[in-house]
Amino acid sequence: MRLWRISAHPGLSGIGGTYVDGRWHTRPRHVVYAAEHPALAMVEVLAHMHLTPASIPLTLKLLAIDVGKGAVVAPMPALPSGWQANRPTTQAMGDAWLTGGKGLLLKIPSAVLPEAFNFLINPLHPQAATHLKESDMGPFWVDRRFIR
User: Fold this and answer.
1) Contact at 8 Å (CB) between 85 and 111?
2) DSSP string, 89-131
3) What is the C-alpha radius of gyration for the chain, rounded to an integer number of angstroms?
4) Could you give the C-alpha distances from 29 to 34, 38, 82, in angstroms and in order?
5) DSSP string of 21-86?
6) Is-above-0.85 flag for pTM?
7) Distance between CA atoms of 47 and 6, rounded to whole angstroms?
8) Are strands 117-121 and 105-109 parallel, antiparallel or unpaired?
9) 94 pLDDT band (50/70/90 cuts)?
10) Three-class SS of residue 145?
11) Domain boundaries, the chain
12) How many C-beta atoms surround the C-beta of residue 75 within 10 A?
């Protein structure tokens, strides 16, 4: 399986999760968010940016994450109606999964496009060292049509 992320900081340490809360975790937890397709990775990144001509990031990279056969993927949690607007619920689910160590990956729906899927990666899981390989696919350029 190949997953995707867009970041200015390559690496799978999950250190970013220790600085800020996310939809599926609270700090200070090591976690990496990845998408099932590069287009979904782009949508997720752009959903958090307020782009102006002066704020176009020049250091973003498209990163591929190859997940080895046998990697444990935890089952997707049952989500309550309206989960996209209930961050404490999704954070508690993600925190419990990270703490429980029951899989290298957790498949979760995208809050932006629930028909598509993201994956949480637990970089502290024992399989992380042997089942993940990140590759730099080159710069990620923001199409000017996304700039307002």
Assistant:
1) no
2) HHHHHHHHHHHHT--SEEEEE-SS-TTSEEEEE-TTSTTHHHH
3) 15
4) 16, 25, 25
5) -BTTB-SS---EEEESSHHHHHHHHHHT----GGG--SS-EEEEEEE-TT--EEPPPP--TTGGG-
6) yes
7) 12
8) antiparallel
9) very high
10) helix
11) 2-146
12) 9
Between CA 103 and CA 126 the distance in angstroms is 9
Residues 62, 135: contact at Cβ < 8 Å? no
pLDDT score of 148: 73
Q: Give which of 105, 33, 118 is closest to 74, Cα–Cα.
A: 105
Element (H, E) at 135: strand 132-139
Residues 6+ apart with CB under 8 A from 26: 91, 95
Of 112, 111, 139, 134, the C-alpha closest to 121 is: 134
Both tokens of 102, joined, read 């029951």
Tell which residue, 129, 97, 78, 74, has the closest CA to residue 24: 97
Run of H or E including 137: strand 132-139
Q: pLDDT at residue 55 above 90?
A: no
Q: Which two tokens mark 143? A: 């199409």
